[in-house]
Amino acid sequence: MAKENHTQYAILGLLTTECRTGYSIKQMIDTSLNHFWKISYGQIYPSLKLLVDKGYASVEPQVQEGKPDKKEYTITAEGQRVLREWIQEPVQQLPVEKNELLLKLFFSRNQDVQDTLDHLEAYREKLTDRYNTYLGIQEMINTQLIEQADAPFWLITLDYGIRITLAAIDWCDETKKTLS
Asked: I need a labelling partner for 6 at 20 to 30 A (CA). Which of 34, 39, 85, 139 fits?
């Protein structure tokens, strides 16, 4: 069975927010979705074209004075129907995480314990940076975007990231104790 491309659903979902251009979609991806769903810049415009071709989105050129014209995209009623159907489908399987640290740890009897501890500490620092980023995003949503209809859903998605990150920090600390 071919793996389904969920990028089209991510782009459709972004069209239900205030994102209307490829650039604004890219900004939203960089500041929110990329924390849990990777979409490269090179996927955005082909996905938008595909959505327009399928009738899930429409596009209108917008004339800008002194700048090149831009394209504004809008989700169609058919696109909203398809998005709603996809959202209502149960998740079929848990994602498999690719984690280079876990792969290295699996084979770490082949290196000095101190090197493994150093890897864990560096990983913990990255997790702490991520945690602080999430707290900043949470503060921004709570202070600047809380009136938006999507805000409660952004916050519960963010809460998942915060909790997973805190659990991973705790795991690093416990693993370092085990190895020490």
From this structure: 139
